[in-house]
Write a structure and sequence with these properties.
By secondary structure, the chain is mainly beta. Helix content is about 0%, strand content about 85%. The protein has a six-stranded antiparallel sheet, with no helix packed on it. A hairpin with a 2-residue loop joins strand 4 (about 60-70) and strand 5. The radius of gyration is 18 Å and the shape is elongated.
Length: about 110
Amino acid sequence: VTVRHLSGDIRVQDSTGAAQDDQTVNQTFPMAHLRLELPLAPRLSLVAGGNWIAGGGNRANDFTAEVRARILGPLGISAGWRSKYYHVSSNGYLLDTRLQGLLLGARLDF
């Protein structure tokens, strides 16, 4: 189980910029979580994982696949792909979006 907390303000504005509505979000929720790690070599591994939640016609998920390499001791690098999808309806507004792209990182594993 993954626990996420969303906190912030959302501003919804029409295409002309004339009408807008501001809403504050402050919510904690659990998500189903799955992660697999496959060692490819002593310092190289393939990792895939994701989180998912659905309820009341709303849903959100994220998926990550990456290759991780340890360079020196606990220091390493990673490269992969991340995709996030949100379909949330609230107070007559609908958020239906997908964010995806390359993932590059420096790592410190304990």
